[in-house]
């Protein structure tokens, strides 16, 4: 019996939302950090972008809520 790997309409919508959000947030993160000289500066400048991804649910399992709120 063949397995159907087709996505449902809801799954397509989730994939598109994740793609759009990542494109917006990650492009903004690059603009905010690419000119910085040290990894520490990049880390500090990228925190709002990580926070946005956590709040959107994309990094929920990677960053604990108390850390994301900082």
How many helices? The count is 3
Category by helix and strand content: mainly alpha
Radius of gyration equals 16 Å
Instruction: Give the low-pLDDT segments.
Output: none
Roughly what is the average pLDDT, rounded to an integer?
Answer: 87
Q: Distance between termini? A: 50 Å
Largest sheet properties: none
Globular, elongated, flat, extended or rod-shaped: what is the shape?
A: elongated
Q: How are helices and strands ordered from N to C?
A: HHH
What percentage of the residues does DSSP assign to strands (E)? under 5%
**How much helix is in the residues?**
55-70%
Number of strands: 0
List the defining traits of the structure above.
70 residues; mainly alpha; elongated
Could you please describe the fold and organization of this structure?
The protein has three helices and no strands. The N and C termini lie far apart (50 Å). The longest helix has 25 residues, at 9-33. It has a domain at 38-70. The protein is mainly α.
Q: What layout of secondary structure does this protein have?
A:
Layout (H helix, E strand, L loop, with lengths): L8 H25 L5 H17 L9 H4 L2
Helix pairs in contact: 1-2
Summarize the structure.
By secondary structure, the protein is an all-alpha fold. It contains three helices and no strands.
């Amino acid at each position: 019996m063949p397995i159907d790997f087709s996505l449902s309409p809801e799954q397509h919508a989730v994939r598109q939302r994740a793609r759009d959000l990542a494109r917006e947030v990650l492009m903004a993160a690059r603009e905010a950090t690419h000119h910085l000289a040290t990894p520490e500066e990049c880390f500090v400048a990228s925190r709002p972008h990580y926070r946005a991804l956590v709040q959107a649910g994309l990094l929920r399992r990677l960053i604990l809520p108390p850390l994301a709120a900082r």
